[in-house]
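Many introductory courses stop at the sequence. We go one step further.
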Amino acid sequence: ASVRAWKPVNLSKTGLTNEPSAEQLPFKIGGLELPMVTHNAPYAEALDALASAVSAHFEGGVGYYPIVSCGETCDALGYGQDLLERLSKPGLYFSHRSGETFKSYDNYGSDELFQGIADARAEGRVPVILAVGGGVNGNSIGLVAAITGSDFIEVPTTPMHYNDATDRKS
């Protein structure tokens, strides 16, 4: 299948560039400049800002279907469920085992996940996978997003993940 053109999130359209708690960071990987924002605000405010930004990016189109993916640690802390609730849209919550040893098809290749992506497409909605938490989740679920042509948003939850899963260039 042909690869569709990459369309980065327009941060000014999302309103994030106007928020005093949000700061756009220089980020480049593989020759692409990617929109990256750090949000220094209380947890609830940061979640609301992310949910607003995602909604603003996809408004006016066919709509989107959020798939929030997180490993067992973020699942236990409630981060993924909190985000899905803030998005205020029907979606899929996908949790899985964490750690390098679980980077395998049987951990990420669930029928439920692929069915959710297929159903979204059948309904004319864009599947948007939001990887909440650790680098293994971002790496593995990011591959699933690429293979299925789904949009992908990575949501690091710790400074270690922020640096582990990215290659910042100033």
